[in-house]
Design brief:
Mean pLDDT of chain B: 87
Radius of gyration of chain A: 21 Å
Strand order of the largest sheet of chain A: 1-2-3
Low-confidence stretches of chain B: 537-543
Number of strands of chain B: 21
Oligomer: heterodimer
Helix content of chain A: over 70%
Mean pLDDT of chain A: 84
Number of strands of chain A: 3
Structural class of chain A: mainly alpha
Largest sheet of chain B: 5 strands, mixed
Structural class of chain B: alpha+beta
Number of helices of chain A: 17
Largest sheet of chain A: 3 strands, antiparallel
Distance between the termini of chain B: 143 Å
Order of helices and strands of chain A: HHHHHHEEEHHHHHHHHHHH
Distance between the termini of chain A: 19 Å
Chain lengths: 368, 608
């Protein structure tokens, strides 16, 4: 019972990164508050209470993950990786279909998305691979190998088809490779390949996804369709002003003009009700989380820990930039939630587990 | 590579990543700054518009009553159908197609209204269909949940008690036009307002028009009302109590029937107008419910011009009625006395032209007889002796050739010619021969029927001109309107002169004169008939006939009421106009007797 031992040890609690946990809890509180506010007029379910439960479970999982020696995870990652691929393959065939994607693994009334597990497993697998090389720059073969490790589960997720979630894996690979070391020429070449791939991707997109990209470029072309969401979100943000309309006072939120306001558009509600000040505080907390994590990455005992942190932070940052960029119209609508703030079990649990991984690296720094 | 060097290298790359993240966050913060600080007022405006709907609450117009507080015009509730495109999940055409399937309105009508307002902002509601029937309302209520873009709006709508009853007095209402909004009269109104267009509705629009209210409601994204934020109740317009007597008005209109003409009844002692009928008339209700193009075309293309209030807007030659004023002028100027007789041989030559009398010859006639029998030759002679300027001065003093000042828009002044008038208007001098025509009320002299009644009534009560009015200024002042006091003028005229006119006009009606058909048994009606020469022969064929006049008052020696009747193309005044006056006077005296009987106390009955 190594896990219990760790949680009992004084060492664990002394080294525990309370700053990261408190920052995450502060963000979750803002999220809870605005979930409460944005679902005041909704009939179905108590989103506030359910989110509270998810957060509690998330914090519990955080402690569990933080107490696990990440080296052990890395050692056995091959089993985790294989298991994840099996689960992904299983849901592709037998999974429950939710909003068009066959992504749910159901056991009775309980369900979860293997793609969420895949996120953490890919981070660890990739970290282990990247930590195994010491050269200044990676060879082409190494880059291909890293890409392959990354690509298999991601393609399975993409086949569900859940392109949005598949996209969130991209920064894990990109930042990992960058930090590991890629020759400037290869970097340019990689960038070019991504740009050239874009038109090809277009043909794989569904109509609603194409619409979203068109209305992202020109939201006014369809003010009642998918442009509606961005326009209403901008109105909510803009009407917040410096200090916001006040908690529970945002008309865009309370009157239902904001779409999916407790999940993907939770940040619009923050901006409307808490204003520019609230936006800066929330973004500041998110940035603090990222900075603290990366500063931990700069002084781990080994490069394995460094790459785990880089992978998790890459995923966080991607979520933050895409989600916040979306609500203000800088990014197309993708349905990617904001970590710690958006309502939803998967999002909350993955965020806390990811944070747990980071904290475990900090702990690991002083082990031995 | 040593581990330390390696970590340093990786650390430097992490710093690059950190820098990139910082830049990305800075861009986001800039985005929020731009929306929330720089453009905040713009978005706040959009948010307000998103959620607060300003629903206008139209104020009902004031009611219009007759002198006995009987309603002539009031309001009824009505519902209109509006479309707000902003709320719509479908195109307006689709909405209209769905509505057309269940409503009385045709798709074309609604599309037409949509097209006219298509360029207006999406959040402004467009009126699709007015005045829904109960079945229509039921349909809309039933489908309302599926059609969040449509709503019913309440509008009080004008209702007139009788179809054409007192139409020209009441006037009509209509939606204010763009041109009117930039003018003076309705400059303070807003688009969509209902304003008075004619008659009392227009004259007292400021009073009748209430103050519209508004209701601020919070709506959700389906346009459904969530909460009423505030309500400014509409203030109904002020009621108007007129001097009209509906019984007399009805009697006047019925007596005129389908003929083209006018009947007015006034109280000369006060200027109150009891009845003012002009035929043909229109139904003001058509305008209240929104007149259809074909109905409008039919009205405006009618050669008899139903919109014309002939009592005040048209001028006609007074014909023989003018002889009343000739009599008074001649007596006042002492060019004749009551015992002078003039020989009438059926005509007489003045200034080289022969002027006919209507009779083959009245023989020797006194002034009294001349008026009773309307002898032209007698008045030609008087006119020649008086001259145009004295005739003009007296007639003007007695109220002719100028507006009476009645509280209705568009009154005509009529013309009382003089040498100066002719020089001014034609640049030519007055010829004495023209005076001969004017002496019997022909030639350029022209009056409105109300003016003539008012002038005759004024002389009959001893030379008092009280401004005719439909609404008492005292009432208006109490209602908060600034109105000048009524004009009340007396002019010098000898009692004998008035007495002779009264006696002569009694004779016209009661003593084998030309107006016997105006008699009311038991009451001493006095009056004068007239036949006006046709002015425009080319307008339409019936006008080749003469117009008939009857102006009278009663009782002859202490006049209470004056009536004026004018029937276009009616032929002779005695046969065409006098019976109409009779009907009005009969009604007036019947009511008066009934009132007297009702008010008799038991003591009075015992003393009988």
């Amino acid at each position: 019972m190594r896990l219990i031992d760790a949680l009992r040890s004084r060492r664990f609690w002394q080294d525990f990164d309370w700053f990261l946990l408190l920052t995450a809890l502060a963000l979750s509180s803002i999220g809870l508050l605005e979930i409460y506010s944005s679902t005041l007029n909704m009939d179905s379910g108590n989103f506030f209470l359910r989110q509270l439960v998810w957060i509690s479970i998330g914090v519990g999982l955080l402690f569990v993950v933080a107490s696990i020696d990440y080296h052990v995870l890395a050692e056995h990652v091959i089993f985790l990786y294989a298991g994840t691929l099996l689960l992904l393959a299983y849901v592709l065939v037998f999974g429950r279909t939710v909003s068009g994607a066959r992504s749910w693994f159901g056991v009775g009334s309980f369900g979860f998305q293997p793609s969420e597990i895949a996120k953490m497993v890919v981070v660890i697998a990739l970290a282990r691979f990247l930590a195994g090389h010491k050269e200044r720059y990676m060879t082409f073969g190494q880059i291909l190998a890293a890409g392959a490790i990354w690509a298999v589960p991601v393609i399975l997720v993409g086949l569900q088809p859940d392109l949005g979630t598949a996209l969130t894996f991209v920064p894990v690979l990109a930042i990992g490779l960058f930090v590991r070391g890629v020759r400037p020429m290869a970097l340019v070449a990689g960038g070019l390949i991504v740009i050239l791939m874009m038109p090809v991707t277009w043909f794989f997109l569904k109509d609603y996804q194409k619409d979203r990209i068109i209305t992202f470029v020109q939201p006014e072309t369809d003010p009642l369709g998918s442009g509606y969401q961005v326009i209403q979100s901008k109105i909510a943000i803009g009407s917040g002003g410096m200090w916001g309309t006040g908690l529970f006072q945002g008309s865009q939120n309370q009157l239902g003009f904001l779409p999916t306001r407790h999940t993907d558009f939770i940040f619009s509600v923050v901006a409307e009700e808490l204003g520019f000040v609230g936006v800066c505080v929330t973004l500041g907390l998110l940035l603090a989380l990222v900075f603290r994590s990366l500063s931990l990455a700069r002084m781990p005992r080994d490069t394995l820990g460094l790459f785990i942190i880089v992978g998790v932070v890459g995923m966080f940052v991607f979520h933050i930039l895409v989600n916040v960029g979306m609500v203000i119209g800088f990014m197309p609508i993708t349905g990617i939630p904001l970590p710690f703030l958006s309502y939803g079990g998967s999002s909350v649990l993955t965020a806390f587990i990811g944070l747990g991984l980071i904290i475990s690296v900090r702990g690991g720094r002083l082990v031995n | 590579m040593r581990q330390r060097d390696e970590l340093e290298l990786l650390n430097s790359r992490i710093v690059v990543v950190l820098g990139a993240i910082l830049v990305a966050f800075a861009i986001l913060v800039f985005g929020f700054w731009r929306h929330q600080i720089a453009q905040s007022p713009y978005y706040q405006g959009l948010a307000e518009r998103n959620r607060i709907r300003d629903i206008p609450l139209e104020a009902p117009r004031g009611k219009i009553y007759d002198r006995e507080r009987r309603i002539i015009a009031d309001n009824r509730p009505s519902w209109n159908l509006t479309l707000t495109r902003e709320d719509s999940p479908r195109s307006p055409e689709e909405t209209i197609a769905i509505l057309a399937a269940g409503l009385d309105a045709t798709e074309e009508e609604m599309l037409d209204r949509l097209d006219r307002r298509r360029s207006s902002p999406e959040y402004q509601s467009i009126l699709l269909y007015e005045d829904l029937s109960l079945a229509d309302i039921a349909f809309v209520e039933a489908r309302g949940f599926e059609l969040p873009e449509i709503s019913l709006s309440f509008q009080p709508r004008r209702r007139y008690e009788g179809a054409e009853l007192a139409a020209h007095v009441l006037g009509y209402v209509g939606e204010v036009t763009q041109a009117e909004l930039s003018g003076d009269e309705f400059g303070d109104r807003k688009a969509g307002d209902i304003v008075g267009r004619f008659g009392l509705e227009r004259q007292y629009d400021a009073l009748l028009q209430g103050t519209d209210g508004t209701r601020l409601v919070l709506v959700n994204n389906f346009g459904r009302e969530m909460e009423v934020l505030g309500e400014l109740k509409p203030v109904p317009g002020k009621d108007l109590v007129t001097t009209l007597d509906l019984d007399l008005q009805r009697a006047a209109e019925m007596a005129l029937g389908d003929r083209t003409g006018v009947a007015v009844a006034i109280l000369p002692a006060t200027g109150e107008v009891l009845a003012l009928a002009s035929r043909p008339a229109f139904d003001p209700t058509l305008f209240a419910r929104g007149i259809l193009p074909e109905e409008w075309d039919a009205l405006v293309s009618d050669p008899r011009d139903p919109f014309q209030n002939r009592a005040i807007q048209n001028r006609f030659s007074p014909g023989s009625v003018f002889k009343i004023f000739m009599t008074a002028a001649a007596l006042e100027e002492h060019v004749v006395t009551s015992d002078v007789a003039i020989l009438c041989q059926g005509g007489k030559v003045f200034y080289g032209n022969r002027f006919d009398c209507w009779s083959a010859g009245h023989g020797h006639v006194s002034l009294l007889d001349a008026l009773v029998h309307s002898c032209n030759v007698f008045f030609y002679t008087l006119g020649d002796q008086l001259g145009i300027d004295r005739i003009s001065a007296y007639a003007t003093m007695m109220g002719l050739g100028q507006r009476t000042g009645i509280d209705l828009p568009g009154e005509d002044a009529g013309i009382m010619p003089s040498a100066e008038w002719k020089m001014r208007t034609t640049g030519d001098r007055w010829y004495p021969g023209e005076t001969i025509s004017v002496s019997i009320g022909q030639g350029p002299v022209s009056v409105t029927p109300l003016q003539l009644t008012y002038a005759v009534g004024g002389l009959a009560v001893g030379g008092v001109l009280n401004q005719p009015h439909l609404v008492n200024p005292e009432f208006l002042r109490q209602a908060g309107l600034e109105v000048p006091a009524l004009r009340s003028e007396t002019y010098p005229v000898a009692a004998d002169t008035v007495a002779l006119v009264q006696r002569a006009l009694w004779g016209v009606v009661n003593d084998a004169g030309t107006g016997t058909r105006a008699r009311v048994d038991g009451f001493d009606v006095a009056g004068k008939t007239g036949t006006a020469q046709v002015v425009r022969k080319d307008a339409y064929s019936a006008e080749f006939e003469d117009h008939a006049w009857f102006i009278g008052f009663a009782p002859y020696d202490a006049p209470e009421i004056a009536v004026g009747v004018f029937v276009e193309s009616g032929g002779h005044g005695g046969s065409a106009a006098a019976p109409v006056a009779q009907a009005i006077l009969q009604t007036y005296f019947d009511k008066k007797s009934a009132r007297l009987t009702r008010n008799r106390t038991p003591e009075m009955a015992r003393n009988d």
